[in-house]
Amino acid sequence: MKTVAMNLSGAVETPEMPSSPYLVDVDGRPYVPIGTAGIVLGVRLGDGVFDHDADHAAPGVTLSHTDQAARHGLTALACLGNEAVVHGGAAAGRRGRVLGKRGEQGRVIVVFPDDVLELLLPGDPILVRAHGQGAVVSPSVALINTDPDFLDRLPISVGNDGVRASVRAAVPSALAGNGIGRPAHMWDLDLQVTAETAAAAGLAGLLLGDLVAVDDLDVRHNAGYRRGWRTVGLIVHGGSPQPGHGPGLMPMLCGPREALTIDIQGDQHRGVTAEHLDFRP
């Protein structure tokens, strides 16, 4: 069966805060979150997830929609590698690609070249050509949140007996924080590590754009523990001081470990880069 593409409407998000701007970190200290949403400048694919003094910072822009149901639809249907086109404002006609998504109310992360980011304003309309949800590449391994036409750019190979992915590291599902129990088509999973604890968890040198495997995790429906299963995902945003939060992993592949095999590469790993997205930022 063929999958279909859909044109979806989103708008560049603007950061929002309640009357008090403070969140509380793992030690009970208040802080003001910076870089959580909107147009984030100076954060790029390949940066370390703890390189920036920011909270959940992602490269590029985040998209939302004024209608909450449409916002959920945009988040659920947009996939890694989908084309995004600016349809208004000073950057009209310029193109980027979807990198990932985040949960809560729902937001889509789109990467553009730096010169486009400098032109964009909150509220600028963006068309996302959504394609990928529902695609089947293997009878034993589920593909989600990923345009199947983008797979050949990634360190992922599909065979008759399953899927093999090259990853920076594999971690236990006990590290999965915010996003657990949520529908993975609309959420990412925060890995509960900090700059101080990442090395002990096997995530030293973790970069935006890396692929990481999480063992004993089934995300095909709501994300949750399942012994013997494995999820491979893409790191789409940086760390956070909040307890239960951390670098964000957007699920891409899920299946039994014997069908979803991995090659752990450590510092030799090369995940999603600007070149994969057809431009250099």
UniProtKB/TrEMBL annotation:
Return the Pfam families for the record. Answer: DUF4438, DUF4438_C
Q: Residues in domain DUF4438?
A: 22-151, 154-263
Q: Tell me the protein's name.
A: DUF4438 domain-containing protein
